[in-house]
Design brief:
This protein has 427 residues and is of the alpha/beta class. The chain has two domains: 2-82 and 218-414, Aminopeptidase (3-Layer(aba) Sandwich); 86-202, Aminopeptidase i, Domain 2 (Roll), CATH 2.30.250. Helix content is 24%, strand content 28%. It has nine helices and 20 strands. The chain has helices at 2-12, 17-30, 184-187, 220-235, 265-276, 281-289, 336-348, 368-373, 399-414; strands at residues 34-36, 49-54, 58-63, 73-79, 84-94, 98-106, 119-129, 132-144, 172-175, 193-202, 207-208, 214-217, 242-248, 292-296, 299-300, 322-325, 353-356, 379-384, 386-388, 395-398. The strands form three sheets. The protein has a nine-stranded mixed beta sheet, with helices on both faces. A six-stranded antiparallel beta sheet has the order 8-7-10-5-6-9, with helices on one face. Strand 11 and strand 12 (214-217) form a beta hairpin. Helix 4 crosses helix 9 (399-414) and helix 7 (336-348) packs across helix 9 (399-414). The longest helix is centred in the middle third of the chain and has 16 residues, at 220-235. The chain starts with a helix and ends in a 13-residue tail after the last helix. Bound molecules: zinc ion.
């Protein structure tokens, strides 16, 4: 249960991708990792552990055994972002009665779950100071809310009400004139903000339900994977392969940004590690051919009231272990080879696993594994933990699964020897 509480704290400290990466890098600093900057030369040595941040919202860290022979890379990847609402540049909206924020939808949140709860605002701002432009992280816990229309004016609300993002999802922060604040800068007492990436967020702290086997929290997708895979990575040891942990921003909007899983970030880092150790072009290609990527992003647990939405034989449950996601159209990268490898890692760690596939008439979602493969094309698998209400402002997951993921990733990363992928089956 201690790990579940740590996860809940981790999520609470990470209202936005910028905060999540800061929380992760603080953990890495405490574990003795050294920061490398992309715009400076790297001094990388055997036995060392390092991290690189891009855009304050994605991180890649790696550790190299003292006697590493660069057989390959053992990589685990997750994402730092969450669906929600982003403030527009001119974010103050006023009408004769209220002060409001003008927001835009980020990714695919379930709108109705954002109504009638205290919302915070967090993200990054640039300010003009004597030193020039200064970056600051901002986190204001109780700022605004998005009110529902009363049922008396919307009698059909429980039959599914349409919510227009420009009309219905604008958050109020004051009644007009009462607070004496005229815009966002005045609200937070900072008049020198030049630009911002700010998001509304659910500031509620996660908690374990009385039964002890379920916990609720905002941002379980995907900070549960970001946290558990980090712990597994930190625990793991491997003398042959280089261990890599990545957490990318922008999965919820398609990953096609300079710091997303579709960028060259991972490829750039792997190449620079190779160069630092004077590996030839061919040696680097050999290392890639021996590498495996585990893409960790949460999965849909069978729904208590809508079980008919799930595949009849490949549905998954909370507290029953690692979900291995399969898709014929390879929206998940999993194949027979990567399944065999990962299941071995789970067995070694005594961790249960289960298979997920969408109903054949449901499309389901995609994730970062397939996107990352377009830049770094290596053996990959898509896994996750089962949860309810994905993309709700408050999600639910199983407490036992937290430790399962930590153990499975530790085992996968430390596994001494992998079955070689045969080039061809000879008689
Ligand atoms: Zn996700």
């Amino acid at each position: 249960m201690e790990k579940v509480q740590n996860l809940i704290d981790f999520i609470h400290q990470s209202p936005t991708p910028y905060h999540a990466i800061r929380t992760i890098t603080q953990r890495l600093e405490n574990a003795g990792f050294t920061e490398l900057a992309e715009n400076k030369p790297w001094n990388v040595k055997s036995g060392g552990s390092y991290y690189v941040v891009r855009d304050q919202s994605s991180v890649i860290c790696f550790k190299i055994g003292l006697k590493s022979d660069f057989r390959g890379y053992r990589i685990v990847a997750s994402h730092s972002d969450t669906p929600g609402f982003k403030l527009k540049p001119n974010s103050t909206l006023e009408n004769p009665h209220y002060m409001k924020f003008n927001t835009e939808v980020y990714g695919g949140p379930i709108f109705s779950t954002w109504m009638d709860r205290p919302l915070g605002i967090a993200g990054r701002v640039y300010r003009k100071t004597e030193k020039g432009l200064t970056l600051e992280l901002v986190d204001l816990p109780d700022v605004c809310l998005i009110p529902n229309l009363p049922i008396h004016f919307n009698r059909e609300v429980n039959k599914g009400a349409e919510l227009n993002p420009q009309v219905d999802m604008q958050a109020i922060w004051s009644t007009k004139g009462a607070s004496g604040k005229s815009d966002f800068n005045a609200l937070i007492n900072k008049n020198d903000i030049i630009s911002h990436d700010l998001f509304l967020y659910n500031r509620e702290k996660g908690r374990v339900l009385t039964s002890g086997d379920l916990f609720v929290s905002p941002r379980i997708d995907n900070l549960e994977c970001a946290y558990t895979t980090l712990e597994g990575f930190l625990n793991a040891e491997n003398e042959k392969d280089i261990l890599v942990y990545a957490c990318f921003n922008h999965e919820e909007i398609g990953s096609a940004t300079k710091q997303g899983a579709g960028s060259t970030f991972l490829k750039d880092v792997l190449e620079r590690i190779g160069y630092a150790f004077n590996k030839t072009w061919e040696e680097q290609k050999i290392a890639l051919a021996n590498s495996v990527l585990v893409s960790a992003d949460n999965a849909h647990a069978i729904h208590p009231n809508r079980g008919e939405k799930f595949d009849p034989t490949n549905f998954v449950k909370m507290n029953e272990g690692i979900v291995i996601k399969h898709s014929a159209r390879q929206s998940y990268t999993t194949d027979a080879f990567s399944t065999a490898l990962f299941q071995e890692a789970c067995k070694k760690a005594n961790v249960p696993y289960q298979a997920f596939a969408n109903r054949s008439d449901e499309r389901g979602g995609g994730t970062l594994g397939a996107i990352s493969s377009s830049q770094v094309s290596i053996t990959s698998i898509d896994i996750g933990l089962a949860q309810l209400a994905m993309h709700s402002a408050l999600e639910t997951a199983g407490t036992k699964d937290v430790i399962y993921m930590i153990k499975a990733i530790q085992s996968f990363m430390g596994m001494e020897y992998f079955v070689e992928q045969p080039n061809w089956l000879l008689k």
